[in-house]
Amino acid sequence: MTDTFKDLGLPAHLLRALEAQNITTPTPIQAQAIPHAMNGRDVMGLAQTGTGKTNAFGLPLVSQMLELQGKPAPHTVRGLVLAPTRELAKQIQDQLLLLVKGTPMKVGLVVGGASLNAQANRLARGTDILVATPGRLLDLLDRRALTLAEAHFLVLDEADQMLDMGFIHALRKIAGLLPSERQTMLFSATMPKQMEEIAQSYLVKPARVQVNPPGKPADKIEQEVHFIAKGEKLGLLRELLDGHRDDLALVFGRTKHGMEKLARMLEKSGFAVAAIHGNKSQGQRQRALEAFKRGDVRVLVATDVAARGLDIPEVRHVYNYELPNVPDNYVHRIGRTARAGRDGRAIAFCAPEEMGELKDIQKVMKRDIPVASGTPWERIAPPQGQGAKPAGGGRGKPKPGGARRAQQRRRSRGGQGRGKGQAA
């Protein structure tokens, strides 16, 4: 493995920019991808979030664009970076701005939830690197606010999530507006079948680099699951959050309305909390994230808009208040902790109706999640003449504390059943 960034052939300006950020050693994905990209090859990179992908494409992108002469023409873009969410796009822009600091290069951002007219006006002056979400980029292209005819560098980051979010048609349309002579870098955490179509449309004889098998979470994340009825989740969440009020915690759920309601209830319980989801404007989402980074907010409640791209090393705890429908999203959610070499905890709540999601998640990870309380919601064979009842929660919907009392009863009968540290 390459020991230093200097070995990768990066220019002195970028070496100084990395030194200013105290970044000294390339990560595996950077060491593998950067040499190919510096040689002008297309790159397909497979790696989980938190492995340094932004610099893996950002460093060779900026390095090559620094060699371009003159300024970009009005309404043109020289390099395009596509990302699935506003948060990830903003994070990419922030990192690229650090890399181009002290140069005349301009890094623009176009995402939903912000003024379309203001974005169009900024693009009129020409842009070196544009970071964009596909939907907003198409809005601006339809308005003829920019052209992609001069975009000879293209990056697709978190491409699998763009497919999950239904951007396949947008990507096809954008591909048709780009020059055929270009360098393309595609990065993804997983490789679904449809990704092959995207790869064939965008890449030409790419160098394929991969670190960490798809579906494998960071080794330093301590995972556990609580088998608990839906109605008991809020009480357990309050109890667990109360045990580490000084730490930063992310709480994930499925729906915008559900997470907004959860944030209000946690706030009433005295927690410093904020929420980000699709119903929030870009300004609201950014203010919530900044407050969370500063520590003014200790609990951030979110939908999967925050499952990728948030790089906040101080996050110690990730709660899956509701399990995701897409099993890979679990891996991305818990990847928000144990970053930059730190430890982290991932706590999942599983109601009876979520057992299918849990099994899919464990199948993707190729491992079982240790049980913290309760027992799996499997239907067990009933005694003769009686109806079946769910294990782990008593008959029907468990009463408050039912999961724990059930566990205590099993222990008093000789330790039967699973406890903390044992696999589901």
TrEMBL record:
It comes from the Bacteria. Residues 3-31 form the DEAD-box RNA helicase Q domain. One of its GO terms (cellular component) is cytosol. Coiled coil: none annotated. SMART domains: DEXDc, HELICc. The keyword Nucleotide-binding applies. Residues 34-209 form the Helicase ATP-binding domain. Residues 373-424 are annotated as: Disordered. Residues 414-424 have a biased composition (Gly residues). Residues 220-382 form the Helicase C-terminal domain. Belongs to the DEAD box helicase family. This is ATP-dependent RNA helicase RhlE. It comes from Lutimaribacter pacificus.
